[in-house]
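Each lists chain and fold; for instance:
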Amino acid sequence: MNKIGLFVVLSFWASMVVANSTENHATQSLEMWEPKEVRVDGESLIIISKERRITDQIYRAMIVSGLCMGTIPRPSSLDGISEVRVLNQFGRQGYVFKGGKGECDEINNMPANKTEMYVLGRTHMHTNQ
């Protein structure tokens, strides 16, 4: 019984360490946008911006020039992430990028003139649930 309890505690602790690492790496990658909050919820990376409204230009810049470029020096920074939510300061408006490390690797290896269509093809509007 003690081994099972120890395993559960260690599993929980390991998931917290990975989430904190992802949050820290994302915060560093997005430093120039000064996000109010960066957190991991399951497989979602949630970024609460300081902006009242998230435009598609802000969103694309945060994904391409922030998060994805941030994976070049820190390749494991988006491990376990399957979507990125970029939301306004109220967490009510924004965009969702369906992707993580693999999609960022693709973005980092494609010509700059192709990234906009690639990102928009994997994007949908955020809706409150």
Observations:
- The chain has four helices and five strands.
- The two ends are 39 Å apart (CA to CA).
